[in-house]
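User: What would this chain look like folded?
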Amino acid sequence: MAYRGIALTIAGSDSGGGAGIQADLKTFAAFEVFGTTAITAITAQNSLGVHGVFDIPPEMVEAQIDAVLSDFPVGAAKTGMLSRSETVRAVCDVLRRHHFTALVVDPVMIAQSGDALIDDPAIEALKEELFPLTYIVTPNVPEAERLTGLSVEDEEGMEAAAREIAQMGPRGVLVKGGHLPGKDVVDLFLWDGKVTRFTHPRIETENTHGTGCTLSAAIAAGISAGADVLAAVDAARRYVRKAIEEGFKGGKGYGCLCHIVKEW
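Assistant: Here's the prediction, encoded as structure tokens.
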């Protein structure tokens, strides 16, 4: 058996294993893609919350990315936790230097426990510097509202937010609707100005820690393996849905996804 591609995750470490770098590598493996990493922060974290954060110096983040991209033929990369504007700028600098454009951005802002994972200057740096380098960005509804200043209460609001974010530079915007009420979950994918609607019945569970990390990693994995964009997004959503259905509750708090699911 051979790997189907090589992907890079630029994200924080979750010591609890359910999100961040750890979730991304598990996801890459599920897609039979070789995973490489650039760690942006180390969190002391478990199923109950985030107990400490240590930001990796920006020059070391940049050095990790440079080391990977100068050696490996990376087909796609994803970003996760970029908590400081200095980190965002370091990431942008090295991506520009390597003319790297196959980038999936998960605009991580708040942990499931409610802990903030990014400061305001970093959000502005995302919008002004990283989004113009972005292939696909994957905000949930609260993140879409924070990025645009719009109130998102329905599908119409999701589409308006997606189009507003697209004006910031990304070619594609996947607005995830899991935070909105209803028996079905609807995600809207704006690609080259055209909207594709994905829907599935809501799964009632608390085992959702790391969902955003996993979805963005799955999209990057699909792209690195040669899938076209819509196929990569569709496969990523099916994988995440199956992983949520199976779930894994290892600690005393929120559970996470079961990344080893098959036949999704």
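Residues 229-246 form the longest helix (18 residues). If you want, I can go into more detail on any region.
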